[in-house]
Amino acid sequence: MEQQARSYLEQQGLSHIASNVRYKRGELDLVMRDGETLVFVEVRFRASARFGGAAASVDWRKQTRLITAAKRYLQRHPIELPCRFDVIAIDGAGSIQWIRHAFTASS
């Protein structure tokens, strides 16, 4: 699913920086650049929307892990760009929903 999300975002004009960046307390599926913004992308797949779908699965616990991983990434790769968190939600039919600014680090 990450490759599908990456291809989609590249078609939208974003540039790929890194994939599957793992730390002890979290993982970043994709790190992309959108102009002058660094974008941390969480990719979620759900075959059905029965329990809220893919986007709804990024709850506060997941957001906390993503924020922690992003902070670690920025410590190891100092970049002087504004950052945001996006979610790519993919459903069972392969439809992609891109949620820009899905949450903030102060969430």
Let me know the average pLDDT.
87
Major sheet: order of its strands?
Answer: 1-2-3-4-5
CATH first level: which class?
Alpha Beta
Number of helices: 3
Helix percent band: 25-40%
Describe the model.
There is one protein chain. The protein is an alpha+beta fold. The protein has one domain: Trna Endonuclease, Chain: A, domain 1, CATH 3.40.1350. Helix content is 29%, strand content 42%. It has three helices and five strands. The chain has helices at residues 2-11, 53-56, 60-76; strands at residues 15-23, 26-34, 37-46, 83-91, 96-103. The chain has a five-stranded mixed beta sheet. 24% of the residues are buried.
Strands, helices and their partners?
Blueprint: H1 2-11, E1 15-23, E2 26-34, E3 37-46, H2 53-56, H3 60-76, E4 83-91, E5 96-103
Parallel strand pairs: 3-4
Antiparallel strand pairs: 1-2, 2-3, 4-5
